[in-house]
TrEMBL record:
The keyword Hydrolase applies. Residues 845-967 form the CBM6 domain. It comes from the Bacteria. PANTHER family: BETA-D-XYLOSIDASE 5-RELATED (PTHR42721:SF3), SUGAR HYDROLASE-RELATED (PTHR42721). This is Glycoside hydrolase family 3 protein. Belongs to the glycosyl hydrolase 3 family. One of its GO terms (molecular function) is hydrolase activity. Keywords: Hydrolase, Signal. PROSITE patterns: CBM6. The keyword DNA-binding does not apply. It holds the Pfam family Glyco_hydro_3_C.
Length: 967
């Protein structure tokens, strides 16, 4: 069916408004309390009273108190990614990727609201590390599932990321931008999706990728007044460090509200001659550029503000900054603080909250509900839901069966309901539950001395040493395999994990942890059958590989490979055999496998292998062979290549690390008390071979994410099953949207996530295969039918036109697709849009080189340090395509180009027609300009460049091209 319709304006995201609060001022002329006018008055008065030195002191993360103005100390940066973090026990909600997997903005907003309450709950005591400016949410797009920080983001899709981040941030603010509960900021701006050399790599963002993919993820919460600023990323974008990427012409234009923008930790120091980026010579130059770029607060040097104060003061003395620049940043800081009620004696409308809100009964219930809604049923051949009344014996096995792990940005668990406990409690006394972690119990015997490695007892453990002749309990360790050869050792003597401290190894940690994870080993088998233990904790910080060795007194310390002690690894208990025995005797086996967030992927460490660890995979296969009624629960933070499991295991369930209520939430889903309604927010690929380099950011050219990937996926974006079934009616176009009826055709109540996609059939450029335009989570009773209307606007069909530097809606037929996932489309219709026809390129006017249509052998680079993007040739014969150029009948007779070439010697720019090796229309020689930022204008005569055709510019290695024209 074809139907022409007029598309309405975009749907606004509503937030409740409460005009409360107080601001100082004369009663006769004071603006209404809790309004923008009142905030502005407070800010102006304070700014006028602050001395220059006081203003400069406020630019650092740790802002000092100014008693004469009754200004308390203030700190930016409380971590609140999925709960209040680093400040003691607090409600731990599912990781961010789990929150997004609910596809439930209303629920996510409730979580943000609860977290905001808990942040506020500490305001009476204001502990070190606490503040009302919270560093959340993370909106970096999950375009590569190998990213170490995948757990922190929401989705590979910018629209879904924008909806989720707006909901979470809106909860954190309390919903009224004039009276903030907390002041969240989104991070990390921009294009930060790799950890490898993250402060040195540059993310190439051609204009379409920037405008259509990256910016919308950040813009959503900012433009909805749900977020109060951004944190810039460590990486570079198009050759320029994000720390000095101009925010004034981008982020600050997305709202008329005042924003507080901050650097990432220690990032200013990276910019200097002694830092990793070497972009500026001195810290004074760097800090001046940071403020000029639209940032307000320096997160650097821990609590020590002196380097920042000194550098900014020097920048003023050198004329790199003016006091007006300082005032601009301070005005932004004061505005946010005023809206937080920081200058009100009672703390504003949220000043009554205290510590009693932390881990409250209501928040516990919300944590359980959220963890259950985040669960995704990947596969089900009828094994689920489990029938509690019919089960006599259940085996719950696997390395994650009876533990809960936290991540770097997690809060401290106030209690822990593990999968084993959740299932056991749900079954009650009517069934027997057998368990095994499925890991080997070993002893390490020095092959040369015959002495066994011994651990300490008690919570504090002790330094490990070789001082036993036999393998008693203190000589036994449980060996956990995490993939990529990495293992951890847990001492049986006290249940603590072994790690390095002060040069020796101790069994004193509850789980692997820390910025530098010190509890990791890589056993290496030797020719004689012994093993040496390579130390893998923060191994990149050691020049050469280091190993475990025993000193003469038996203490275990670090040494070279030549000094490494050789051990006979004695297996005292076969973990797989134990788990298989439990599974074989059970009616149903539940295998809980997955990741350890500090090991498999984390900040500073990307994944290389997307599969389960080898030992975990072997466990799953063995249990499945022993019991055909096997359910596998995968508990991790990212897509996993579960190809064998999908083919052979009856039921597969995925959850992220879901916090304190993980076990009860899993039990709710496994036993059918909650019908699973989670959906994947990323494509799950079959192999790492399906992915380009993690450093390739051009989703269009390299066909990343569901929008462009053409291969066969394991699970598509949006996938998730239910215990009931849903029938879709035929989608119908309505003014401003699409309506479709959904019927629950099963016997259980459940929720369907109705997803709306579009596909543009014809275009001047490569378009997405599908593009998410809207979704709605709808709860239906058995037999119930409901009509769901999903907004669809004309603006949503636009793409960035590089020929004219603006958004365009093309004249085309658009497929309107409604379904249960991007790979499960249940209904479709067509929409004829009478949009524009993009005219042929006009290369007679100056054309930015970055506005190419295709390319090879080039990188996007910084045209100048403050702003601008050029194209740099990385190899000889690099080329740029400018498709469908109208050169007119009389033709173009001259090439004019602005170029730079830092390296010695001459290079060339060739104009070729039809192909990179097509007919040569002209060549211009470019001499060295001596600097990558020194551009010169060059010209050359052209011959035969006429009519309408594709134009290629072929560049010599080392040449930079800013813009050009053909006239």
């Amino acid at each position: 069916m074809k139907r022409r319709t007029v598309l309405a304006a975009p749907l606004a995201v509503p937030f409740a408004s409460a005009l409360v609060g107080a601001a100082a001022g004369p009663a006769t002329a004071a603006p209404a309390a809790g309004t923008r006018a009142a905030t502005g008055k407070v800010v102006r008065e304070l700014l006028a009273k602050l001395t220059l030195d006081e203003k400069i002191s406020l630019l650092h993360q740790w802002q000092p108190a100014i008693p004469r103005l009754r200004m308390k100390a203030f700190r930016t940066g409380t971590e609140a990614l999925h709960g209040l973090a680093w400040l003691g026990p607090a409600t731990v909600f599912p990781q961010a990727i789990g929150l997004a997997s609910t596809w439930d903005p209303d629920l996510i907003r409730k979580v943000g609201d609860a977290v905001g309450d808990e942040v506020r709950g500490l305001q009476q005591e204001r502990p070190a590390g606490w503040g009302l400016n919270v560093w959340a949410p993370v909106v970096n797009l999950l375009r590569d599932p190998r990213w170490g920080r995948n757990e922190e983001g929401y989705s590979e899709d910018p629209y879904l990321t924008g909806v989720v981040s707006t909901a979470y941030a809106g909860g954190l603010t309390g919903g009224d931008p004039d009276n903030l509960k907390t002041a969240p900021l989104v991070k990390h701006y921009l294009a930060n999706n790799n950890e490898v050399r993250r402060d040195q790599t540059s993310s190439d963002l051609r204009p379409r990728v920037l405008k259509e993919f990256e910016e919308p993820a950040y813009r959503a919460a900012i433009s909805a007044d749900a977020a109060c600023g951004v944190m810039t990323a460590y990486n570079l974008v198009n050759g320029r460090p994000c720390t000095v990427t101009d925010l004034n012409d981008s982020v600050r234009t997305w709202t008329d509200r005042t924003l507080l923008n901050v650097t990432d930790a220690w990032a200013p120091n990276n910019l200097t001659a002694t830092g990793s980026q070497k972009y500026y010579g001195t810290l004074a130059e760097a800090d001046a550029a940071i403020l000029k770029a639209g940032l307000d607060s320096f997160t650097t040097d821990g609590e020590n503000s002196e380097p920042t104060i000194t550098a900014v003061t020097e920048a003023l003395a050198q004329g790199l900054l003016t006091e007006r620049d300082i005032d601009t940043a301070v005005r932004h800081i004061l505005d946010i603080r005023a809206r937080l009620g920081d200058f009100d004696e009672d703390g504003g409308p949220y000043g009554h909250l205290d510590k009693s809100v932390i881990d409250s009964p209501a928040h516990r219930r919300l944590a359980r509900r959220t963890a259950a809604e985040a669960v995704v049923l990947l596969k089900n051949d009828g094994a689920l839901p489990l029938d509690a009344g019919a089960l006599r014996k259940v085996a719950v096995v696997g390395p994650l069966a009876d533990t809960l792990y936290t991540d770097w940005y997690s809060g401290e668990l106030p209690y822990a309901i593990t999968p084993l406990k959740g299932i056991t409690d749900r079954l009650g006394a009517g069934a027997e539950v057998a368990t095994s972690e499925g890991v080997d119990r070993i002893a390490l015997k020095n092959a040369a001395t015959g002495r066994y490695v011994t651990a300490g007892t008690g919570d504090a453990g002790a330094a490990l040493a070789e001082d036993a002749a036999a393998a008693g309990e203190t000589e036994q360790f449980d060996l956990f395999g995490w993939g990529e050869g990495v293992v951890t050792l847990r001492a049986v003597a006290n249940g603590k994990v072994v790690g390095l401290r002060d040069g020796q190894f101790y069994n004193d940690q509850d789980q692997p942890n820390g910025w530098f994870v010190s509890q990791l080993f890589r056993p290496e088998e030797q020719d004689d059958g012994t093993v040496v233990l390579r130390y893998a904790g923060y191994e990149d910080w050691f020049g050469d590989a280091v190993y475990v060795r025993a000193r003469e007194d038996g203490a275990l310390v670090l040494g070279t490979v030549a000094e490494a002690s050789r051990y006979t690894l004695e297996t005292l208990r076969d973990g797989v055999e134990e788990a298989v025995a439990a599974a074989r005797a059970a009616d149903t086996a539940v295998v809980v496998v997955g990741s350890m967030p500090f090991i498999n992927a984390r900040e500073t460490d990307d994944r290389e292998d997307m599969g389960l660890g080898a030992s975990q995979s072997a466990l799953v296969r063995a249990v499945r062979a022993a019991n055909p009624k096997t359910v596998v629960v995968v508990e991790n933070s990212y897509p996993t290549t579960l190809t064998w499991e999908q083919e052979h295991v009856p039921a597969l369930v995925w959850t992220t690390h879901a916090g304190q209520e993980t076990g009860r939430a899993l039990a709710d889903v496994l036993f059918g008390d909650v019908n699973p309604a989670g959906r994947l927010t990323q494509t799950w690929y079959r192999s790492t071979d399906d992915l380009p380099s993690i450093l390739e950011y051009d989703n269009i050219k390299y066909e990343r994410t569901y929008q462009y990937f053409t291969g066969d996926v394991l699970y598509p974006f949006g996938h998730g099953l239910s215990y009931t079934t849903f029938r879709y009616g035929r989608p119908r176009l309505r003014r401003g949207g699409v309506a479709v009826s959904i019927t629950n055709t099963g016997r259980r109540a459940g929720a369907e996530v109705v997803q709306l996609y579009t596909r543009q059939r014809s275009s001047r450029v490569k378009q997405p295969l599908k593009k998410l335009q809207g979704f709605r989570k709808v709860w239906l009773k058995p037999g119930e039918t409901r009509t769901v209307t999903l907004p669809l606007t004309r603006r949503a069909l636009a793409h960035w036109d590089v020929t004219r530097d603006r958004w365009v809606v093309e004249r085309s037929t658009y497929d309107v697709l409604v379904g249960a996932s991007s790979g499960d489309i249940r209904g479709r219709t067509e929409l004829d849009v009478h949009g524009e026809t993009v005219p042929p390129r006009n290369l007679r006017r100056p054309t930015r080189a970055e506005n190419f249509d295709d390319y090879a052998g080039v990188r996007l680079v910084d045209e100048a340090k403050p702003r601008g993007t050029a194209v740099g040739a990385e190899s000889e014969g690099a080329w740029l395509l400018f498709a469908d150029a109208e050169l007119l009948r009389r033709g173009a007779r001259r090439l004019t180009a602005r170029v730079a070439k830092e390296s010695p010697g001459a290079g060339t720019v060739e104009v070729r027609l039809g192909a990179p090796d097509g007919r040569l229309a002209g060549t211009v020689q470019v001499e060295s300009t001596g600097s990558r930022y020194a551009y010169t204008e060059v010209t050359a005569a052209l011959k035969g460049a006429w009519r309408r055709q594709d134009v290629y510019l072929v560049l010599s290695e080392g040449l930079r091209l800013a813009d050009f024209s053909l006239r």
